């Protein structure tokens, strides 16, 4: 079997570098820049991922380019530490101390452990440990020209956007690109409107017995909407109970002129899981992207959201709710980039921290560049702390270079206020009922924005159960 590019690099580092490259003190020079040769832990993990994925889709040019680009990026990206600004408040040292194995396709019967098979009336696809399972997917009746399936089954006449160009991410998005055996692909052609939503379920079946042993999977989904196309997509992340696993996911969304995407994202991993996700969105002229997200599972959950408006008159709405319980970290890093006139964006982030060992992080950046005149952008973050020493780190950031805009942002962190409880009690509502209503309604402001009643009720019930288990409501 041919050796991997990482193995070849170990023998001859010049294989993956420019002709002008020179070495100095464990570093390498590319042009005028000196970059680290790579963290040994990162290189070992990347090699495992490359070996596990090397036999899949070798003939697919898009996937091959993605892997090659991500392999080179790994050498430029050391393992993040608290010294890196984007990980200053997110501790991932335990990952580096864990024994990480790569999930492999299993032939054993799937144990869904109560996982519901999608939403009633929706198209459904299921990705098990990163690979699309056709036997558990239901896409019959799709309109003519719509493709929902794996990259390996994509007809030759479909053209995807360059996958390697979509990755402006970090080490973990590069690791995903190296370890992707196949990609899920959704293509909606020009002028097509899907009347039924598409429910994408990500299920992690393999895992260890504790956080010292993790099994990593790398699901990647590409969604392309043609000119004037419309659809609703739901992403739901779950996994086997009492298993320790790491879901390292990437979603790439490309919206052409006047396309509209309604995106719901629900993260309900088990308490032993690690969840990392990158979402890249590119919006064309007059396009609309609306995201509603709830995240309440996992030992560590981090969502990196990057939205770039590539034309004028775009609409972007992002609403997120995070619930952090005992020993949990919920992290959202978002970036919305406006480069063209008359862009509209709204971002609402809310989180509840219910335990002294829980931690929430929000780093939200909205950048209004010079040519984005007449932009209307707003950002609001609100956090509710319900336990002593509960921690939240909030960093809202609004950068404005244009001079004719309407922009605002704000942030608030608090416990339940006595005057709020008094307001209820003064109207005959007892303290217990008042507290329950105030705590739940804090997150309900986001959850009620889910467009589908079935999904909304399902998420609300899950959140109520978690709040009750944490003693936040009684």
From TrEMBL:
InterPro entries, from UniProt?
A: Fe-S_cluster_assembly_SufBD, SUF_FeS_clus_asmbl_SufBD_core, SUF_FeS_clus_asmbl_SufBD_sf, SUF_FeS_clus_asmbl_SufD
Q: Which GO terms describe its biological process?
A: iron-sulfur cluster assembly
Identify one Pfam family in the record. Answer: SUFBD_core
* Record domain SUF system FeS cluster assembly SufBD core: where: 216-442
Output the NCBIfam families linked to this UniProt entry.
sufD (TIGR01981)
Protein name (database record): SUF system FeS cluster assembly SufBD core domain-containing protein
Q: Which organism is it from?
A: Picea sitchensis (Sitka spruce)
């Amino acid at each position: 079997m041919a050796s991997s590019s990482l193995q070849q690099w170990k023998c001859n580092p010049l294989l993956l570098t420019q002709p002008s490259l020179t070495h100095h003190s464990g570093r390498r020079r590319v042009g005028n820049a000196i970059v680290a040769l790579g963290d040994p832990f990162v290189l070992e993990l990347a090699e495992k991922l490359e070996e596990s994925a090397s036999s899949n889709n070798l003939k697919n040019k898009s996937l091959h380019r993605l892997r090659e680009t991500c392999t080179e990026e790994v050498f430029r990206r050391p393992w993040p530490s608290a010294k890196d600004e984007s990980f200053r408040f997110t501790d991932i040292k335990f990952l580096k101390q864990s024994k990480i194995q790569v999930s492999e396709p299993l032939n054993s019967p799937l144990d869904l452990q109560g996982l519901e098979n999608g939403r009633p009336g929706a198209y459904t696809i299921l990705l098990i440990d990163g690979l699309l399972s056709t036997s558990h997917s239901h896409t019959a009746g799709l309109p003519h020209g719509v493709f929902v399936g794996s990259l390996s089954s994509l007809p030759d006449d479909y053209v995807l956007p360059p996958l390697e160009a979509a990755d402006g991410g970090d080490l973990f998005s590069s690791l995903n690109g190296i370890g992707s055996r196949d990609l899920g692909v959704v293509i909606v052609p020009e002028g097509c409107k899907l009347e039924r939503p598409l429910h994408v379920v990500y299920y992690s079946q393999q895992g260890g017995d504790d956080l010292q042993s993790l099994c990593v999977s790398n699901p990647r989904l590409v969604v392309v909407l043609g000119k004037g196309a419309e659809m609703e997509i739901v992403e739901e992340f779950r996994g086997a109970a009492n298993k320790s696993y790491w879901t390292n996911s990437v979603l790439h969304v490309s919206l052409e002129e006047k396309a509209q995407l309604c995106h719901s994202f629900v993260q309900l991993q088990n308490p032993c899981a690690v969840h990392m996700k990158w979402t890249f969105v590119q919006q064309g002229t007059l396009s609309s992207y609306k995201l509603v997200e709830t995240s309440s599972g996992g030992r560590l959950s981090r969502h990196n959201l990057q939205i770039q408006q590539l034309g004028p008159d775009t609409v972007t709405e992002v609403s997120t709710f995070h619930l952090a319980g005992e020993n949990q970290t919920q992290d959202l890093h978002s970036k919305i980039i406006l480069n063209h006139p008359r862009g509209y964006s709204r971002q609402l982030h809310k989180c509840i921290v219910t335990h002294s060992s829980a931690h929430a992080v929000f780093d939200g950046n909205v950048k209004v560049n010079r040519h984005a005149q007449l932009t209307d952008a707003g950002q609001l973050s609100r956090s509710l702390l319900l336990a002593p020493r509960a921690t939240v780190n909030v960093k809202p950031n609004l950068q404005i270079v244009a001079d004719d805009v309407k922009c605002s942002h704000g942030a608030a962190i608090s416990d339940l206020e006595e005057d709020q409880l008094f307001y209820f009690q003064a109207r005959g509502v007892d303290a217990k009922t008042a507290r329950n209503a105030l705590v739940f309604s804090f997150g309900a402001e986001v959850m009620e924005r889910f467009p589908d009643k079935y999904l909304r009720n399902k998420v609300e019930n899950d959140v109520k159960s978690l709040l009750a288990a944490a003693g936040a409501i009684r």
